[in-house]
Amino acid sequence: MATLLRSKLSNVATSVSHKSQAKMSGMFARMGFQAATDEEAVGFAHCDDLDMEHRQGLQMDILKSEGSEEGGEPPLEGDIHYQRDGTGPLPPSASKEACSELSGQGKPKITAWEAGWNVTNAIQGMFVLGLPYAILHGGYLGLFLIIFAAVVCCYTGKILIACLYEENEDGEIVRVRDSYVDIANACCAPRFPTLGGRIVNVAQIIELVMTCILYVVVSGNLMYNSFPNLPVSQKSWSIIATAVLLPCAFLKNLKAVSKFSLLCTLAHFVINILVIAYCLSRARDWAWDKVKFYIDVKKFPISIGIIVFSYTSQIFLPSLEGNMQNPKEFHCMMNWTHIAACILKGLFALVAYLTWADETKEVITDNLPSTIRAVVNIFLVAKALLSYPLPFFAAVEVLERSLFQDGNRAFFPNCYGGDGRLKSWGLTLRCALVVFTLLMAIYVPHFALLMGLTGSLTGAGLCFLLPSLFHLKLLWRKLLWHHVFFDVAIFVIGGICSISGFIHSLEGLVEAFRTNAED
């Protein structure tokens, strides 16, 4: 009996220890960016698994003790092997009970305000610096598109979350899927059960890698324009930036980087306010007559991609909604975050364009006077360099999971050894990915073109096309006629914008690539 009591106390202490670790991890995760939140979620799930194993091991010990004391039959072999260290199999019935008992324990949840902060980080990032350039080629139609994109992305975010739920036998709405990939696979089942997930993964990898390239491009561009008198070219600044970023290949987690994300985001908001304040100080010289009612047919499709790319957040919304304390507040959170983004982006783009008119550059801070440009740009470069590890680490995780760690379906051997350490050739591949982002930034150092291409290719696909298509496929029997109309309209308009923007952006990139190759 004394042994049983000691065993109980030991397991309870272990359970409390794991829960406290999960709470501390949750506290740090809430201070970070969304990528940090996803990375921490792995730790929370691991703590939950350990907690479940210890509880079930305790139950097995109790059953064994009761059976031996009462002279009952000895437990099954599988029960005997299942000890508190989790080495034995878990009975199916006990597994279900444990999962239902512990589903809401140990995993920290976030409030609607914290979820809104994560969405704001995604759609109010430093890529808003390219929006005034979109107004240059789109005029008032560009402003309308900023509003239109906010409305559409808010709607597609909501219908994407609706695809996670289905009615059970009792008529209750329950969550049956957990991610964008699960939704895509459900749409392609049963003929191609993994095709949809692979398409989403490819789109995600392209978007993440292109985001890394954009960070290198914007770093080289800002440093070159901040110190034009130095004998250092933009390409050389990009190489220096990449040399600073090379240690990202050795990252095991994002805990160290995520601590700086909140500070960087706040600094970026301050920089935006400084730019707007400077523009307001020149309000008397605003060129209202320069705002066009017509568009530049050749360059406006690129502007569409820039605007769409600045609103991309759908890829992590399922995970975010699943971690909310009250998922019913998701729709309200999406409304106020996108309304705020629409107002701030529209004002920022319009005010900046009115200040510099036809002289508006791809990155608006390059238009600032040299006295304050260097200070502002250095802060932006610091933010870009500290933001680079987030999409880089996410891209590496997707690549490793898809190509090296997918069990028997993996294309290549596992890049991790038996002790969990990264193999040398796996580290080489990570370094090669960093170098690839540098090469793209050197040969195509055009912020607007790359941003437009990414927005037209993956941004429109992940934000417009796929959510509306999945919504029609999974829930078409329950949709009202106006929902069907909206989904079809978004799919058609998004497809047209995506194709036209992609073609024009690709033409511009090819031309820029040829020019750089000749030089």
TrEMBL record:
Region annotated Disordered sits at: 66-98
**Per the UniProt record, which residue ranges are transmembrane?**
141-165, 205-224, 260-280, 300-320, 332-354, 374-399, 427-444, 450-472, 484-503
Q: How does it sit in the membrane?
A: Multi-pass membrane protein
Sorted alphabetically, the Gene Ontology BP terms of this entry are: gamma-aminobutyric acid import; neurotransmitter transport
Keywords (alphabetical) are: Cell projection, Cytoplasmic vesicle, Membrane, Neurotransmitter transport, Synapse, Transmembrane, Transmembrane helix, Transport
User: Where found?
Assistant: Cytoplasmic vesicle membrane; Presynapse
Any idea where the Amino acid transporter transmembrane domain is? Answer: 109-505
Q: Which GO terms describe its molecular function?
A: gamma-aminobutyric acid:proton antiporter activity; glycine transmembrane transporter activity; L-amino acid transmembrane transporter activity
InterPro entries per record: AA_transpt_TM
User: Where is this chain primarily localised?
Assistant: membrane
Q: Which reaction does it catalyse?
A: glycine(out) + n H(+)(in) = glycine(in) + n H(+)(out); beta-alanine(out) + n H(+)(in) = beta-alanine(in) + n H(+)(out); 4-aminobutanoate(out) + n H(+)(in) = 4-aminobutanoate(in) + n H(+)(out)
A single Gene Ontology CC annotation of this entry is: vacuolar membrane
Specify the superkingdom.
Answer: Eukaryota
Q: What's the family? A: Belongs to the amino acid/polyamine transporter 2 family.
The protein's role, per its UniProt record: Antiporter that exchanges vesicular protons for cytosolic 4-aminobutanoate or to a lesser extend glycine, thus allowing their secretion from nerve terminals. The transport is equally dependent on the chemical and electrical components of the proton gradient. May also transport beta-alanine. Acidification of GABAergic synaptic vesicles is a prerequisite for 4-aminobutanoate uptake.
Q: Tell me the protein's name.
A: Vesicular inhibitory amino acid transporter
